[in-house]
Amino acid sequence: MSSTWHILGAGSLGSLWACRLARAGKAVRLILRDGQRLQAYQQVGGLTLVEQDQPRHYAIPAETAQARGPIHRLLLACKAYDAAPAIASVAPRLVEGAEVLLLQNGLGSQDEVADLVPRARCIFTSSTEGAFRDGEWQVRFAGHGYNWLGDPGNPALPAWFDDLQQAGIPAEWSLDILTRLWRKLALNCAINPLTVLHDCQNGGLLGHLDEVEALCAELARLLRQCGQPEAAHELDAEVQRVILATAANYSSMYQDVRAGRRTEVHYLLGHACRAAGRHGLQLPRLERLLQRLVDSLRVRGLPCD
Fold first, then answer.
1. Which pTM was predicted?
2. Which domains does the chain carry?
């Protein structure tokens, strides 16, 4: 099997992974959206990673999805709403048994991808690392975090897993990756929409703790109903710890809205409400929060799905 890391999605986390893998001497190839993006990338000659205010340039080769050649390992690092069309663009190039790492927020997009590439092994990833684009083809490492990877259908550790340690990517193979993804979904649902609606940093939610606690109670009910009691354990306490620890930060959803970008509401709060509906759960605060958020997005002229 080829040792090349193909990376589809040259945003913040995709670029961060690409630069660290290249720095460790791993074979990396970026897959860009179209010929115009490829030409723009080739003009600058690679990606730049800024760590502790020190920039370093990496001349990582790139191609478009339509390029020829098989793909054995793919890091899918696009937004959740782009995951299905992105994987469809390269599906013909995936070899039998190809491994696809899914680095999306929320839940739902993973199943959409898996349905499109039934011959591939899909590996779910939950990341708390921080990075942001600091200009075109430049990414700034914003905060140390961790990455959990796992395959709900196959507990075997992938042969390439040591690549991550060698590249300085903090990672752990998790046998309960779905629990981690559900827990992160609940954290995001309790924090991100409220920061948009109250127009505040995460710490601003300290003035709305009654609302936060009520949402956490409904989210914990949902998690238990979905067979995730561990994800529900002391959820409210962890949400408040995250708010305090990230008080000066703006949530990713807040940043998307302020920048006029599409949010991942469909795979976060939307997924939670759809799951509640499937289980016949009445979660009025969660449903009302989703409606308030959708109304706010519509007023701003942003997509609601």
1. 0.94
2. 5-175 (3.40.50.720), 179-299 (1.10.1040.10)
